[in-house]
Design a protein that fits this description.
Oligomer: single chain
Structural class: mainly alpha
Strand content: 5-15%
Strand order of the largest sheet: 1-2
Low-confidence stretches: none
Order of helices and strands: EEHHH
Distance between the termini: 52 Å
Radius of gyration: 21 Å
Mean pLDDT: 80
Number of helices: 3
Largest sheet: 2 strands, antiparallel
Helix content: 55-70%
């Protein structure tokens, strides 16, 4: 559970270590899997390193997307809902400068 510090709720040391290790494992597995599949496809297609590079890049993109998801989840659980959102919520109320009438 998140503790409340002088500047608001914070993550405990165990929670922070769990998040860091989960991100590291996700990064290693994603890139390693992309490397393995890319080398296999290079061997099958008899290309030099084309599929290996594509596989590693896809692994990095997947790891980055997973990292963003993990970060947002940690911020929500830690009580930082406002900073976990990427964009502010839009309102349906018309603005004063709406001259469509």
């Amino acid at each position: 559970m998140a503790r409340s510090g002088p500047n608001g709720p914070t993550l405990s040391t165990i929670q922070a270590l769990a998040i860091a290790s989960q991100f590291g494992i996700t990064l290693a597995v994603s890139v390693g899997l992309g490397l393995f599949v890319g080398q296999w496809l290079d061997g099958v297609a008899h290309t030099s390193i084309v599929f290996t590079l594509v596989g590693v890049l896809l692994g990095l993109v997947g790891a980055a997307a997973s990292g963003v998801t993990l970060y947002r989840s940690a911020m929500r659980k830690g009580g930082f809902e406002a900073s976990a959102r990427s964009t502010p919520a839009k309102t349906d109320a018309p603005s004063d400068d709406d001259s469509s009438l």
